[in-house]
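User: Hey, my collaborator sent me this sequence without any context and asked if I could get a structure. I don't really work with proteins. Can you help?
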Amino acid sequence: MTQDLNNPLAGSQFIEDLGVKLIHWQDGCASIELEVVKRLSNRLGMAHGGVISTMLDQVMGLAWRSVGQDRVPGGTINLNVNFIAPGNGMLKANGRLIRFTKSSAFCDGDITDATGSIIATAQGVFSARLSAKPSVQQ
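Assistant: No problem. I've predicted the 3D structure and written it out in C-alpha cell form, which is a compact way to encode the shape of the chain:
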C-alpha cells in the first residue's frame, strides 16, 4: 500500500486496487484518472456503473478535503449520479466544493472520456463537521 503522506489517496486499498491516480488536489478542486480495463467493465465492455460512482464519490470527497482541514470527515451522506454516456479507456473525474455548512460539504463532479466528452455528472453531500476547538483553561 502507498505510504505517500502528500497523496490523499494513500491508505485506501480499494482505490489503489482500482488503479485510481491523483492528478490535482487543491483550492476546493480535485482531479483523478483511471484506465478502464476488462476487470472494471460491465457485460457490455464499458466502465461498470459502480466504478463511475466510486470515482465521483472519491473526487468530490477529495475536493472538499483539499480546503477542509478544520473539518472532521465522516463519509458520504448523499451521492446522486447521472449516467450520460458509456465510458471506456482513460477516464478523468473532476470534483468541486460548492459550499460548506457547519456539518456538511456540498460538491459536484463530472467524468470525461479521452475525447473530453462528459459521460457522467454527480452531486454529493459529505459529512464534514467543524472540528471541536480546544477550550481555554484559566
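In plain terms: The CA atoms of residues 30 and 63 lie 5 Å apart. You can pass these C-alpha cells on to your collaborator as they are.
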